[in-house]
Design a protein that fits this description.
447 residues, alpha+beta, Immunoglobulin-like, Rossmann fold, 4 domains, five-stranded antiparallel sheet, four-stranded antiparallel sheet, 16 strands, 18% strand, protein dimerization activity
Amino acid sequence: MAASQESFMFTVGKLDAGMAILLGERAHLIEFPSILLPPGATTGSIVNIAVHQNHAEEKRRDAEFWTLQDEILEEFGVRTPSAPELQLRHVTQTSITLEWPLIELATAKLRSLDFYRNGQRLAPIPSPLTNTSSKISALEPNTEYTFQLILRTTAGTYPSNLIRVRTHTMNDTSGISVCFGNVQDSVMLENAKMALRDMKAKWSDKIQIDTTHFVCTTPAATPSGSSPSRSSPIAPGVEYQRALQLSIPIVQPHWIFACHTERKLVSIAAYNLGATPPTPAPARPQSMSQPAAPRSPTSPGGAGSRQSMPPLARNTSPPVAQAQAASFVNPSATPPLASTPEHANESANDPDAEEVKLERAVPTSVMEKRMSRPGTMNREFKFPTPVSSPTVGETPDMPSIHRVVTPSNIEVPPPPPMEKELGVSPPRSARSDEGEEELGDTVDIPL
């Protein structure tokens, strides 16, 4: 191989599979691509190979390399994901609505976006790349809470700012957010808006994430200026259907008036759509015995009378039945039979009434002794039959009412002992010498 400043001389030793073996003077052996050999070169051919350094090409390639490195740094090394900025949107007694701008991930990939309440993971945010708000419910009234968002990406973890908020009390009505549907009475609608404005509440025509109640008087949505046909049914409005899907309470405008009157959040149980709203309590009704219409003092049962029925007639039953009832009832609670002239005349003609008179003539002290003695009874006593029972006489205003005196209707005291003639028991001293009276056989009296 003859060397020169421009080239080196080699002998082609072997050609195999696209590679050539070149041999130098000092037994140098190199592999050389056969495609770079001159055309027609075979085994044993002598070739000259010149080698030169290309400085210009080196500079160009070096510039291309660093340009590429700068682009990679600008794309992946300068911009990083941004931490979410949490903001408070709405507060009620039992819920809080929070919002934030769209998350910035730069070139990183999202792993998770979670809500934290009081330092504990609450729930992941659904559709975190497009969702920018969330409503947290089932909170306690008048309670302080802290909320935070945690963004996790392939480039690291980025926590948001901490929000500290207290839920409203029941007397704070500023958290009410109403969406109005179809309210048929325009005056009622304007009054409801005035009441909301006075309570520092808000309303809208579209359902939003912070909407607390949907107010309407009918689920149908009738366009303005058109009347629906009677033959075709009216379909519910779009906002009404959305309220049902989102489980938003649907109430009548009377609920707003009740909250404004009570100055607090009122239960919606009595104001649901279709229910009859409660009305103010009416005046106290008159007694059942008082007539509703005024009566003249001269008319029967006038203003001075509280009776709604005519008075019952006095007892005009035969004195015999009264005497039998008097012997059964406590004598001290029974009025005398001959208290009226009619009773006196009847007792004079009735032989049985004479026996009752003798029984009434017994002194009170003797009667009390007889009642205090246990185990004695009047053997000649008989229960009154329904025929001889006292009845209530007929009056011109009402038909006769027959009342049967039965043992279950009156109180039964122990019957007093009586002698055979006058029905008076002997003094206690006389009885002590003669011994106790024999009662004889016991007789069961059906009651």
